[in-house]
Amino acid sequence: MTTDRMYAIWASDNAHVWAVGEEGLILHSQDGGAQWQPQKSGTVSRLVSIFGSGSQLWTVGADGTILHSTDAGKHWRSQKSGTSLHLFAVYAIGSQVWTVGERGIILYSENDGGNWQSKTSGTKRQLSSIYATGSQVWVVGDGGAILHSADGGQHWQAQTSGVTSSLRAVYGTGSQILRDLGVRKIRLLTNNPAKYVAIEGFGLEIIERVPLEIAPSTTTRKYLEAKKKKLGHILELV
User: Fold this and answer.
1) Got the DSSP string for the chain?
2) Domains plus CATH for the chain?
3) pTM (predicted TM-score)
4) Tens of pLDDT, residues 170-222
């Protein structure tokens, strides 16, 4: 059992799972996490994100580290990122790969990471997460930053999140499913206005926001006040 801090986990199916962490640590499980075995990463850099597409895997981390495996993690090779900035997230669709990190850096590769290109993000804020579907790509980060690209990450535009707090993750599978089912207009149950941008980015029109709110108790009031003040949640009873 490791005592090193782990930062990210990714699974290709119910059995195969990878976790990454401090000092280049990569762990792999073939039985859904019951047992874990280390894989040789060839680096001592902190690894903070991992993503896979088929048998290919990428993990990124400190000092511009990018590692790539073509055999489900049996062997890892370093890729030249061209930067020493810390990278915090990686995402891939087929041979297209994106990674983002500090000072607004966005790197893109169209050949499985064989060559990386730096793209102008228009921000110097830390970028923490990335999600893509087809040619549509979103990135989120500090200060409520949301960036969107409609051409596979070649050009980026800032979107208004309505919040100033740090955004740590972006995900769009639910919106994709609704669109594939023919849904175009929705009533959104949420107190969080930041969800508007990601949902509307998939071509869904929010015709009404339905609040999810109950009166605060003595134990929940401070928590809800923090969500209202720091995250911009719409809470009328707080």
Assistant:
1) ---S-EEEEEESSSS-EEEEEGGG-EEEESSTTSS-EEE--S--S-EEEEEEETTEEEEEEGGG-EEEESSTTSS-EEE--S--S-EEEEEEETTEEEEEEGGG-EEEESSTTSS-EEE--S--S-EEEEEEETTEEEEEEGGG-EEEESSTTSS-EEE--S--SPP-----HHHHHHHHTT--EEEEE-S-TTHHHHHHTTT-EEEEEE-------TTTHHHHHHHHHHH----TT-
2) 6-172 (2.130.10.10)
3) 0.78
4) 876 677 667 767 888 999 888 887 677 667 766 788 899 898 888 889 989 99
